[in-house]
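Incident log, support desk, overnight shift.

02:14 A customer reports that sequence design results differ from what the structure should imply. Their input is reproduced verbatim below. On-call engineer (initials T.W.) acknowledged and began investigating.
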């Protein structure tokens, strides 16, 4: 093998220097965007070795009471879901044959879509591989030059990124003040008369736990011929007399044109879905790149999701009653201790402490005492509103809640003192 010449060696060295420099800049960029977790970053990356629905045992051998799970109805680990997933693996294997439009559609997917669409009162539904992908894909697919997209300022990151994709597709994107229908109307009036208009909002907002103003927003959309797209990830199965989310809660069936939901919260599987008219869903199947070019969700996820949906329809009222009991118990205990909690409907309970240090230290102290909670920091929340974000579930007992509250109260007080507050 011939030895490289000096110019070749010089070029190779320069290339390595350039690569290192680019890599360093990329890492710095990512670090600048990341929450500043400091010495407790490991708390966010703990590896769970075992989970019984209430307690997680981590790879260090310690078990902690979990108050961060999205398993709102306590169905994770239910034998009926497990059996359905095992049967699907035995029948189909562990994966699919490709994307949904390239041989990856199973009868399980179609059954799930049909029952999901019936649940939310729509003609058809489309299941995707994740909830984040669902919002991103659908918003990107519907956008083109001449489209106006209006988004609540506190919408989930998947909607924010979907709006960026819509903007890249030529759409005009405007952000309205949180739950401010009047501001949304001001922005809609700026759209040209022939513009295609889309208004998108969370149903229950993921960091604050409050509910969108569906009566006001749906009436606004009807008056301005705007399509209403609502992310029901934290509300389906959780609120409403039938667990049907915000439409069910407000008694306004059919007022949301596109209903987005997840298969990883009240339904503890994986994936996401969007439901709407048969014509619109059919158009999305061949017009949404994230659906066409992503592998289909696994047979076990589809089967577990279908089983969970059927259990929710049978037992949802009782499970929601337990969830409401535990959530109210959690909030009463914390309010009695002097915490100022927002008055929200769903199960998300934000304990706003203000500064980052108190939130981080509070989470660390909680975990040291056997309660697994985490803090939410900027950019996930506004500066000055860092918090512990708690979720009670139907699986918790009153004793679990009391233990968690004792730990949380003392942890936040100690963290506040250490912060000099």
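02:41 Re-run completed on a clean worker. Output:
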């Amino acid at each position: 093998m011939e030895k490289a010449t000096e110019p070749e060696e010089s070029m190779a060295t320069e290339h390595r220097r350039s690569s290192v420099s680019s890599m360093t800049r990329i890492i710095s960029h990512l670090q600048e965007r990341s929450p500043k977790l400091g010495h407790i970053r490991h708390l966010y990356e703990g590896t769970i070795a075992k989970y019984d629905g209430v307690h997680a045992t981590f790879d260090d051998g310690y078990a902690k009471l979990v108050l961060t799970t999205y398993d709102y109805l306590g169905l994770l680990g239910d034998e009926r879901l497990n059996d359905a997933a095992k049967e699907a693996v035995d029948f189909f294997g562990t994966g699919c044959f490709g994307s949904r439009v390239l041989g990856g559609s199973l009868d399980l997917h179609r059954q799930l879509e049909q029952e999901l669409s019936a649940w939310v009162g729509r003609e058809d539904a489309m299941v995707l591989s994740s909830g984040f992908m669902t919002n991103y894909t659908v918003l990107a697919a519907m956008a083109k030059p001449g489209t106006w997209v209006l988004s609540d300022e506190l919408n989930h990151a998947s909607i924010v990124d979907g709006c960026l994709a819509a903007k890249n597709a030529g759409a005009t994107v405007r952000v309205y003040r949180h739950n401010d229908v009047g501001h949304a109307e001001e922005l809609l009036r700026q759209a040209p008369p022939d513009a295609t208009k889309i208004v998108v909002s969370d149903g229950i907002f993921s960091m604050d736990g409050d509910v969108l103003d569906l009566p006001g927003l749906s009436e606004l959309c009807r008056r301005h011929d705007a399509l209403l797209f609502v992310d029901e990830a934290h509300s389906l199965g959780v609120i409403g007399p039938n667990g049907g989310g915000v439409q069910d809660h407000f008694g306004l069936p059919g007022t949301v044109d596109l209903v987005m939901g997840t298969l990883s919260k009240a339904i503890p599987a994986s994936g996401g879905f969007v439901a709407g008219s048969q014509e619109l869903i059919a158009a999305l199947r061949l017009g949404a790149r994230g659906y066409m070019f992503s592998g289909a969700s696994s047979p076990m996820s589809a089967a577990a999701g279908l089983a969970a949906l059927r259990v929710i329809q049978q037992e949802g009222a009782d499970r929601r009653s337990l969830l409401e009991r535990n959530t109210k118990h959690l909030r009463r205990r914390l309010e009695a201790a002097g915490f100022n909690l927002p008055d929200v409907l769903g199960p998300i309970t934000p304990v706003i402490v203000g500064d980052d240090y108190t939130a981080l230290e509070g989470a660390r102290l909680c975990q040291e005492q056997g309660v697994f909670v985490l803090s939410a920091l900027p950019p996930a929340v506004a500066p000055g509103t860092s918090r512990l974000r708690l979720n009670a579930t139907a699986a918790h007992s009153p004793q679990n809640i009391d233990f968690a509250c004792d730990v949380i109260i003392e942890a936040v007080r100690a963290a506040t003192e250490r912060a000099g507050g």
